[in-house]
Fold this sequence. Notes:
The protein has 134 residues and is an alpha+beta fold. It has one helix spanning 2-19; strands spanning 45-51, 60-61, 69-73, 82-85, 99-101, 106-111, 119-122, 127-133. It has a 4-stranded antiparallel beta sheet, with no helix packed on it. Strands 2-7-4-5 form a 4-stranded antiparallel beta sheet, with no helix packed on it. The protein starts with a helix and ends with a strand.
Amino acid sequence: MKRFSLLILALILAPIAAQAEVGRSVFPTKNLITQYVVDSSIDPVNEKIDIPSSGVNARVQLTNRNVNNCTLQAPLGNSGPIYVGGSTVTNSLGVNEGIRINPGEGFGPISIVNSNLLFVATDSPGNDVKLFCN
């Protein structure tokens, strides 16, 4: 009888599991609300980082910090855009120009495990990048 009960339960749940979608209820008369929390133990941080020089190979690595997400912004006071990317990012003169962020604009959130995986470059020495990570 126990095997029969488990078989019936499996037959009932199999179609429901097969139809399941992220964040959507498979029960037509119920509402399913889901929320994803990656790691709530990481405190939000923000900082402003100077990009002291410009040039094709001039880039600044962001601070070594375990994070879930980062949002970057080019301050309004910058004299030109900044470029965000990985360890080979360049400014507009290079072949690996990063994501361009004009003064006053932002980019993100970027899902990443450590903020030091992001690099920034600029066309104008002395530009800054603001970041907010959690």
